[in-house]
Amino acid sequence: MARVLGIETSCDETSAAVVEGTGDDAVMRSLVILSQDAHAVFGGVVPEIASRAHLTSIVPVVRRALDDAGLGPGDVDAIAVTYTPGLVGALLVGVSYAKALAFTLERPLVPVHHLEGHLFAATLEHPDAVPPFTALLVSGGHTMLIDVAGWGDYRLLGATRDDAAGEAFDKVGKLLGLPYPGGRHVEALALDGVAGRYPFTRPMLRQNQRPGDPDYFDMSFSGIKTAVLHAVRHAADPGTTEPGGNGQQQRRADIARGFQDAVIGTLVAKTVRAATAYDRTRIVLGGGVACNRGLSAALTREAATIGAAVFAPTRRLATDNAAMIARAGLFRLGRGETGTLDLNAYASAGLPGLRAA
Ligand code: KG4
Ligand code: ZN
Are 190 and 253 a contacting pair, CB within 8 Å? Predict the structure, then answer.
């Protein structure tokens, strides 16, 4: 049994957690997430502000995670920390603090790739969310379809060629005048929308795509944003009477619904294709967009047609958090993959164990 303290500061949440266990038998002892709300007024994450906020909160957040677990600093066996990808200044705060802790406590330091953390998040709540499985990672920064043959054995099947799915939600949220980050507000607005009134094309999805075609698993979300922009402008025109002759607010909801249905349509179709191609009976979701109930419901429905089960983490574990970092760290620690005190932070770096399809 090993007990790992995880630290995550890659973007705008300062988070610490304790996870303990052996192999896939691991439990979360504590999880603290401090979300920085200062960025909302700027409509996006401001790197300078993020780094400073991490600096002021990292010590109390880690202390709280240990307290919640009923542990002292000396009771942890290793310190896992996100070292990539993310905002370098933000990552550096976590990496520096983790190194200081590892040095003073004389415990191993375990560098964790943020995306590997997202792959492990669901297993903290669903013991069956273990390899082999098809993973759909959908966050504000990433959209990837990965076949997970085993932990550490990843095959990249497809990715977005431009905007990430969450980024598209955020940009569409802005176009619709919603607060940042827009994802959950777009989802809420779409609930009042009528399906089919704005039938946006499902991005990069055609029925005649074949395995081996470069766009069979790939995705793209920047075109639909432009289509939404035109729809919003047209709907705001006082002379506009279609579709349905509805008022402005209803049209905004209809646009949100049309946008969300198109994005979900593409994500679901590509994920089911991937599970079919690799004969997987489990599909694991990760990243902030995994919070979207429309996505998990549609994916669960479609996956059932090929006999696959879908595992989606709850909000705290789907969005950025340190429990998933501690869990991935537990795996890397088990393999003896520890880091040295010259560990650096990187804006981007390859996911360990990831092969091209
Ligand atoms: O994983 P995450 O917390 O941070 C990144 O690593 O990016 O994901 C945040 C993203 C944002 O783009 C946010 O708008 C989106 O996840 N998001 C949602 C929902 N909740 C959060 N997108 C669609 N529907 C939601 N309910
Ligand atoms: Zn993330």
Answer: yes
pLDDT in tens, 300-332: 999 999 999 999 999 999 999 999 999 999 999
State the first-to-last Cα distance of the chain, in angstroms, to the nearest integer: 35
Give the Cβ contact number of residue 148 at 10 Å: 21
Instruction: Determine the structural domain holding residue 88 and report its residue range.
Output: 2-120+318-356
CB of 166 sitting under 6 A from ligand 1: yes
Nearest CA to ligand 1 atom 14: 183
Ligand 1 atom nearest residue 13's Cα: 3
Is 125 part of any domain?
Answer: no
Helices 248-277 and 293-304, interaxial angle, to 10°? 40
Residue 287 lies in a domain: yes
Q: Does residue 135 sit within a domain?
A: yes
Residues 83, 232, single domain; the answer is no
Total-model pTM: 0.95
The rounded percent of the chain whose pLDDT value lies above 70 is: 98
